[in-house]
Write a structure and sequence with these properties.
The chain is α/β, with parallel strands linked by helices and about 140 residues long. It is built from 5 helices and 5 strands, in the order βαβααβαβαβ. The radius of gyration is 15 Å and the shape is globular.
Length: about 140
């Protein structure tokens, strides 16, 4: 039985969201659980590590978080889970680190995460999903 489920959502990847919906709905229906939906806004150093340039001015992080949370709230409606079971979170940082951090904070019993189709660099799983699988302290359901 799961009391606390964490579902990381990439708000820019609709296809990944759609593949986790049936799994989340099933677990939320079968268990008296809280479902925590999380979106992570990568920090600027994360962007620079990907080879992207810094912008001329620092964006307002609170505005980014609020916009991401608004988008996440819209996405969560697709899951058809009762509102009293849902909590949403928008944070900034490295996706894999923030997923693991929130999982520990909420004492997650299960993480349901979508994974990109692998490529040469990730081989079997997307890099965030692989890191979560390796380091999570609870079961992880990876959906592809």
């Amino acid at each position: 039985m799961y009391n606390s489920i964490l579902v990381p959502i990439d708000i820019s990847e609709d296809d990944l969201t759609h593949i986790v919906i049936p799994h989340v709905q099933t677990h939320a229906t079968l268990n008296t659980t809280k479902v925590h939906f999380l979106t992570v806004i990568p920090s600027l150093p994360y962007y620079s590590a990907l080879g992207l340039a810094y912008s001329a001015e620092m964006p307002d992080l609170k505005e980014f978080q609020q916009a991401a949370l608004t988008k996440l709230d819209e996405i969560v409606k697709q899951f058809r889970i009762p509102a009293e079971k849902i909590l949403t979170h928008a944070v900034t940082g490295s996706p894999k680190d923030q997923i693991l951090k929130l999982a520990d904070m909420i004492n997650a019993d299960l993480i349901i995460i979508a994974s990109h189709k692998p490529d040469i660099s990730t081989y079997l799983l997307g890099s965030n999903a692989a890191a979560v699988v390796r380091h999570a302290r609870c079961p992880v359901l990876v959906v592809r």
